[in-house]
Amino acid sequence: MYSRRLLEEFTNPQNVGVIEDADGVGQLGNPADGDVITIYIKVKDDVLVDVKFKTFGCAAAIATSSMVTQMAKGRTIEEARLITKEEVAEALGGLPSGKMDCSNFAPDTLRMAIEDYQKKQKT
Amino acid sequence: MYSRRLLEEFTNPQNVGVIEDADGVGQLGNPADGDVITIYIKVKDDVLVDVKFKTFGCAAAIATSSMVTQMAKGRTIEEARLITKEEVAEALGGLPSGKMDCSNFAPDTLRMAIEDYQKKQKT
Amino acid sequence: MKRIYLDHSATTHVDARVLDVMLPYFSEKFGNASSLHSFGLEAAEALSSSREQIAAALGAEPQEIIFTSGGTESDNMAIKGAAYMCSSRGRHIITSIIEHPAVLRTCEQLEREGFEVTYVPVDNEGILNMQLLEDSIREDTILISIMHANNEIGTIQPIKEISELIEGRRIVLHTDAVQSVGKIRVDVNELGVHMLSISSHKLHGPKGVGALYLRSGVNILPLVQGGGHERGLRPGTENIPGIVGFAKAMTIVREQLEEDSRHMQHLRDSMICNIRSRIPYARLNGHEEKRLPNNVNMSFRHVEGESLLMLLDMKGVAVSTGSACSSKSQKASHVLTAIDPGVDYIHGSLRFTLGRENTMEEIDIAVDHLEEAVMKLRQMSPFEEE
Amino acid sequence: MKRIYLDHSATTHVDARVLDVMLPYFSEKFGNASSLHSFGLEAAEALSSSREQIAAALGAEPQEIIFTSGGTESDNMAIKGAAYMCSSRGRHIITSIIEHPAVLRTCEQLEREGFEVTYVPVDNEGILNMQLLEDSIREDTILISIMHANNEIGTIQPIKEISELIEGRRIVLHTDAVQSVGKIRVDVNELGVHMLSISSHKLHGPKGVGALYLRSGVNILPLVQGGGHERGLRPGTENIPGIVGFAKAMTIVREQLEEDSRHMQHLRDSMICNIRSRIPYARLNGHEEKRLPNNVNMSFRHVEGESLLMLLDMKGVAVSTGSACSSKSQKASHVLTAIDPGVDYIHGSLRFTLGRENTMEEIDIAVDHLEEAVMKLRQMSPFEEE
Ligand SMILES: Cc1ncc(COP(=O)(O)O)c(C=O)c1O
Ligand SMILES: Cc1ncc(COP(=O)(O)O)c(C=O)c1O
Ligand code: FES
Ligand code: FES
């Protein structure tokens, strides 16, 4: 079912946690549906200097969360918002067919965090 | 299915053949139905001194034919006509349930042969 | 890595004694039970003695046992067979909302064909609401199908009470005993049922074979047509090695049920107790006492079942979850939804189903891994305080 | 006594290579293919590679293979599944009068449900009357089911011609290939069929498993409801050891069909030739050339088949007859009745069906015993001159 690479990511996820003084926060999903991803970002000079996540969900949700935070860290805001589910899935050695939808979930949450940051900038 | 005793009788049937100058002959069944028994009797002083059969039919038909000829030989006409299918079946160690009907077949043919003999006596 | 299998309600390994008796029937005594020659006779004898063994283990008569390909087919055959048979008398069927899909989907199919089905609810512990069952019985009720024990949460339903309730009425009572046989005593006369489904692979027999107990005098229509096998009720060349293995598995159940049951219950109770004492916010799903001796179904707050299952699998511990994670959002099973453990718990259920060969040591190791996994996932959970 | 098995159309022994690959799946890799853990994955992988092997052997795609419990279920599923699916378009079905009961009884059931069925006759050699088939096609014909090879007399039907005949029409074509697979080449695309039934135990695989080939794009309704197994078309926990064995048996067929086929045909021809030269009044039933390479069906004048079978059985030779002797009178099979060998021959048929492991020596011994048995019974027969 799951690729070996995804399972590794799932068992050893990176960037788990909360950024207390985050510049942006995104959250998607809801507990009744059984999956919630929260992503925190810290931004300096348009670059994501720190990205952390907390995820309640299946192994794919956790692995994609971990992967997306790693891919985002060090990128500019513009680069990070372009991360696609396909890229994430590929980096994880593919997702089972029934789980492809779920790989959109983490990049979407990251985009929400970026939007949150940008909204705060404007105000 | 078949008892060991019946199979023995079937493989080594007694009294197979035709009595050329028989005193009575009985025949039951027809080739289209797949079974025909012919029984020949030779009578002396009301006693069946010889009984022979020819049978086209299943193992039960052959075994019961053989058994009934043996049971009849040496008996009086009156005794022989009273031979029942139960007796024949019992002597063969029982018949499979689907074959009980078929055990009537040989005693009935014997009774026909006896009737044939009696009819001839009258004329 | 030593693997620990705690998913015996999904399937079981074939017992060594069972495989032993099966082996000669593959390549030596391989005849077709309908053949008249010696190869056929060997097969026919194996078939008939297997039937006797299975009947004996259920308190039934040999001619009341019809062999099928498994639990799903038995359920379909019982429910549709009785429904079609009795449809001139009435078209109302009663079942419960926590049945196996083999029963629920079959009832839904009958609804599409014009039958009416009442799905009786259960309480928060998963026990059938007997009052509602009684209230739903009508003049045109022809069939009641209620599972003996639930496959997810292990609750045992009051089948005997149902059979007493409908005594004297012309209602056929079916029970899906796929999960109960081999774990608790199942006697068709004590239960008072007309039909009862079993599946061999749930009780250390081979896969691909099952049976329907059909009480003498109760008539159903066959779902499959063909040669005259199984009194015309279920044609097709009989799976002799499978049936022989199934019969042996049932005989073993009959001989050692009490001992096995006691052993599994001991493991179960100490597992529940350990989990409760070591893992906070762990909730038992189902009934404390009216449950199978081998079923531990617990929910862990703020963690998701499939993740938990995967983490345990990485440690060699095989379990199941009621939260099948398939597409975008996790669907909690219909059984968990029916007993509603609450939003914080519903997606975090794990089912541990023990087998007679599990040891206390295995249970202890499993609980260690479980504790670690729950902690790990809670650290990742957005609902948990840092 | 060394036994000689010449009844391979009834069932076959499981090939040693087949049993070998099955064994690990009973007690070690015993998981349920639906389980998410490692035991489940092992099973799921075995299932999917088995599906690939079977598809490859038939020239099909893996997703076109649906596992069932055997030939009877495959036939029922194909015929009813297509009939129910297409019933809004029409309710006319065409089959032949010499089909297996799994097809005939199913068609009769559909007649009771309001479908109309045309049973096309065969000629005296058992070959389908193509003209009558063509004439019976109507506007509302939805399904044609014609067996690839007959189980009693081994005649091979012109399936390819039928598929060409109906090209462009919206008629689903099913063939029961239970007897042909493993004896002659069976490729679903060469035959041009939409559905094809197979049974594992007829080709040295285990009993209790079979498959339906269902061409992509052809839809049928399931006969059984339950979990989502087999794309929802055939739910129930998959019989993994059975399926793995079936797949291995199909792979062996694929690898050595030509050789096996040639070997069996050689035995067949010399058996027929020997019987004809040694036993007077012996008649071959079926077609001289268009017959399975392993089928010898002959009638012996003035003797009765069941007796002949029993005498051969006493000598260790296992054969079958088309004259099932059940109650008061012998019923000749519907197949023999259809080809009508005449009153002197119809009750005296024996079917010898050869296997790839039979030897010329066995055939010779069998013919010796046969000759003796025929002579013995003819001596007892009231129709023979002294
Ligand atoms: C309660 C219950 N009924 C029916 C079934 C179906 O049995 P099988 O998978 O043998 O078809 C199962 C198991 O899957 C079950 O747990
Ligand atoms: C032509 C044919 N179709 C169908 C079947 C039924 O197969 P099974 O006995 O595996 O259900 C058989 C064998 O009995 C057969 O010979
Ligand atoms: S979190 Fe939705 S399927 Fe994985
Ligand atoms: S001769 Fe009629 S069944 Fe035997």
From TrEMBL, chains A, B:
Pfam families: NifU_N. One of its GO terms (biological process) is iron-sulfur cluster assembly. One of its GO terms (molecular function) is iron-sulfur cluster binding. Residues 1-122 form the NIF system FeS cluster assembly NifU N-terminal domain. SUPFAM superfamilies: SufE/NifU. This is Iron-sulfur cluster biosynthesis protein, NifU-like protein. The lineage of its organism: Archaea, Methanobacteriati, Methanobacteriota, Stenosarchaea group, Methanomicrobia.
